[in-house]
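Take a record.
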Amino acid sequence: MTLQSPAPPVRAAAVVPAGPVRLPVAVLLSVLAGAALLGSFPPYGWWWLAPVGVGLLAVAAHRRRLRSGAGVGMLAGLVFFLPLLAWTNLNTGWLPWVLLSVAQAAFLALLGWASAWCSPLLDRWPAWWPLVCGLLWTAQEALRDRQPFGGFPWGRLAFSQADGPVLRLAVLGGAPLVTFAVAAAGGALAGVWWCRGRGWRRVPVAAGFVAVAALAVVGPAAVPVAAAGSQRATVAIVQGNVPRLGLDFNAQRRAVLDNHVRGTLQLAQQVAAGRVARPDLVVWPENSSDIDPLRNADAGQQITLAAQAIGVPILVGAVLHGDVPGQIRNAGILWRPGTGPDMDQLYVKRHPVPFAEFMPLRPVARLVSDKVDLVKNMVAGRSPGVVRTGAVTVGDVICFEVAYDPIVRDTVTGGAQILAVQTNNATFDVAEARQQLAMVRLRAVEHGRQALMISTVGVSGFVDTAGGVHQPTGFNTAAVVVGEMRLGGPATLATRLGRWPELAASAAALAVLVWAVPGRLRRRRAAAIDDSVATEER
């Protein structure tokens, strides 16, 4: 009897996964993913492209090697962030813009790696496509919002949905829930792709994915938004404008202050003539007085003149100098007619922007930009921006702080009846201003508080609790707008839950990554068997 060598092991065809899309196709899908994500944000505002971008990136990364998955994520991130953050290039040079964009794209590289890691799990349990995509995106944003140097939440999926029905989910779980829904819809679209070429047996599965995507995107239109309170207050916002856009707005600081004083005096004349109702509060933007009005008597006198003329408090955005040379505070200070600055109603910005309002690694940063030494050391405040004017309690946040969930929420839990975002867009452009306004719209829905955004140069306006914008101003113009705002309202579920939805999603994402380990091991063993078979055949 002749002995024969044992036949090589054969795996069942049912468990042999198809390979990833070809590399040129993956590169194209990654570019399209980044472009779709970009198009979903202002100034384009095609919100429905956000889940398409998520789905394209998920397909590009699926079944790829881990480094290749990170690569397609990085490519999508660069296509997305470089143009999204192009406004940072207007006055600081190209290198800081590129470095910031690359740093943000690295988080999408991490997402691509995680997507590739979870591929065996999704091949085994394809119904989990929407859930896994939703969890991975939410966790990625939670990390990016915090690291490094306090994080940079610009470009969160939630901020692309200001005009979409998914925005309404903010009332239930804030920005993290909105991001989760958008990414889950994208995961469902990727699931439809997964069903391709699998015969009629997969048609019901594909139809289910289509239904999930539609439900995630359109279904939130049925979610009721919070109703603001019945009490009302009249608020005026003064957009004074600046003589020239650019980093030298500080050199024009007296002209900027005079513009806001002049706008308030003109408003006072209209009130005296009976053409406009007297407001209960006037709000000026961030940097409306870059001359410290507590130390400069002339600046203080000008603000006092405006407050006396209008006869109501003014919330002034001011730069205050500390006792240590080079240290400043970015503040909102309530200036009352007759008594002047109310030091008990002073909010100091809690989250200065790294490399813009304080400079980590200053010696290294000098190698990147010659503008580094224009940045002083801004001291962070410690208390939430709850400003009590008498007629209304304002939740004050300054500029980029509107992107950070806890900073806005702290004002509402502290008693804010309306939200006010004081900002200065004079160093940027209208795209940045509209991206920021989209964040204000989400916050109004999230916390059930009417809101306003007031900028030195625009865009400014009022926002209702459904995210609608009222009386918006133009960009790079002077304007004074008076609006009636409804105060307070019941606490939303999102306000009550705070950070718990995001923590839960992040923990679940970590659990999914751990859950995928056995699948990775099975795939590695299968690859080893394939290599063994190929060796014996040779």
Observations:
- The chain has two domains: 20-224+499-537, 232-487.
